What we know:
This protein is an alpha/beta fold. 43% of the residues lie in helices and 14% in strands.
Amino acid sequence: MLDLHTHSTFSDGTLSPAEIVRESHRRGLRAVALTDHDTVAGAPTFMAVCARTGLEGVPGVELSASWHGGSLHIVGLFIDPENATLDTLLRGVRDNRRNRNQAMITRLRANGMAISMEDVVAEAGGDVVGRPHFASVLVRKGYCQTYRDVFDHWLGMGKPAYIRRFLPLPTEAIDGIHAAGGVAIMAHPFGNPNGTAVSKVRKMLKTMAAIGLDGLEVYYSDHSPAETAQARQLAADFGLLISGGSDFHGDRNPGVELGAGRGDLHVPDQLLEPLRARAARGR
């Protein structure tokens, strides 16, 4: 089996890149991709440990892109982590994220919460600091009972401390992935903020395919069997490659395991070679 969508401590996961590799190897996966949000800083360690264990490692990244007032997620697979164009794009996203984080700190403090940027950075421990790290601090300090409470009352869209963040356009995200020699995959098509109607996903894919999208994440932890079948048909309709992964975050996404998702995920081995071949042609 494969798992082509995972997150480490370098973004918002709770396992290090090395721990992801070791756990993937223990579970008997053939290949695993590290796709941290907005950073490739974990890639060198990840690939080095993969080489030592014999597990095939796929360097990757996950980018959020703006979409009609909301967002969609694009996973890049088989990227060159040292590519200058992609690095410039990721730096810009992280810089804007830092500005957003400071604004959220200001709002939370105005509501009586003793939280500092130092608290959140320490919680993150990596390049990318985001709302999950805020949630961890607020729960630890007793301001909220659970992560869900944090988002339902403070950090979710439309809540008092929510700040919309800068996102690149889909074309910028796809072009950055392609510049790094990678393939661009639209992630969890039935888990985006624009709803799960097939008609909405079809409309989205029509636009995305026209600007260079390479593939679709058909296999995903939270796709129902019907959604998996619909995604497979949509990939065929638009001539897109098929990918899949668990979206593993460790303890921050309880119940989702590497390779197995919520227990019934199975990403077939045969999906890997077409993705690798597309990346090779792009280089």
